[in-house]
Amino acid sequence: MSTHPEVLWAQRSSDSVAEKNIVWLTVNVPDIDESSLQYELTSTGISFKAESKTQRVYAFSLSLFDEVDTEASLSKLSSRSFTAVLRKKALKAEYWTRLTKEKTKLPFVKTDFSKWVDEDEQDGAPLEEDFGGMGDMAGMGGMGGMGGMGGMGGMGGMGMGGMGDMGMGGMGGMDFSKMMASMGEAGGSSQSGLDEPADSDSDDDGPPPLEDAEPSA
Questions:
Q1: Widest CA span of the chain, in angstroms?
Q2: I want to staple 181 with a disulfide (CB 3.0 to 4.6 A). Which of 73, 133, 152, 156 is the partner?
Q3: Which residues contact 111 (CB under 8 A, 6 or more apart)?
Q4: How many CA atoms lie within 13 A of 32 on its CB side?
Q5: Angle CA(44)–CA(39)–CA(207) in degrees, nearest 5?
């Protein structure tokens, strides 16, 4: 039987700079056996399944609020968490209203307040500080489907393409690899939600303002 891990999210938006138009996800899953990781990202959704070294299975799937660019999105597994930076496909100044397409409240999905800034304050919040980095992600680009995800191909040997040296326009000359270089093991420091059952009453599934949640069926 699988358990929902704690999923933290934050975002930035831009109607002109693609590299600033992103969603940051941190899945708090400690001591995951890398060979068990099954992660699939499509333009409209994400699915995740992995087993810890103590044989605890974590899994979830989400339909995203809007489309993302799978080729420009990144991901990394550390000893404490799985982290992904999803590139929003549509360039818009407005934030996503929520992470998921459905309005249903998901107790395991919470706002990452360590990275979140309000929409009207994001221009004054440098991405270098707020987003840190994701360490050395060579070979992680385009993870798409991990072992066991039929037809998606594995991650082994899949390079980052040109992402490592791609400059981030409008970010003070800082390139994408530098933005991702400082996080290392820092992602996912919060472990508070690992044992939270799927039917928790947590109200923290997204930042204000949120549309009224509809009860699940």
A1: 49
A2: 133
A3: 8, 9, 10, 204, 205, 206, 207
A4: 27
A5: 55
Q: With H, G, I as helix, E, B as strand and everything else as coil, classify residue 164.
A: helix
pLDDT above 90 for 143: no
The model's pLDDT over 3-25, given as tens digits with 9 standing for 90+, comes to 999 999 999 999 999 999 999 99
Relative to beta strand 68-77, strand 45-51 is: unpaired
Q: What is the pLDDT of residue 125?
A: 62
**Do 86 and 41 contact (CB within 8 A), yes or no?**
yes
Q: How many residues does the chain have?
A: 217
Tell me the C-alpha to C-alpha distance, in Å, between residue 179 and each of 74, 150, 166: 12, 32, 11
Instruction: Answer for the pair 32, 52: CB distance below 8 angstroms, yes or no.
Output: yes
The one-letter amino acid at 199:
D
What span, in angstroms and rounded, lies between the C-alpha atoms of 81 and 185?
8
Cα distance between residue 140 and residue 187, in whole Å = 16
At position 5, the amino acid (one-letter code) is P
More confident residue, 122 or 21: 21
Listed in order, strand segments (DSSP E) in 64-151 are 68-77, 82-88, 109-111
Question: Is 193 within 8 Å of 107 (Cβ atoms)?
Answer: no
Instruction: Copy the structure tokens of residue 54.
Output: 């103590």
Please give the Cα distance from 122 to 11 (Å, whole number).
10
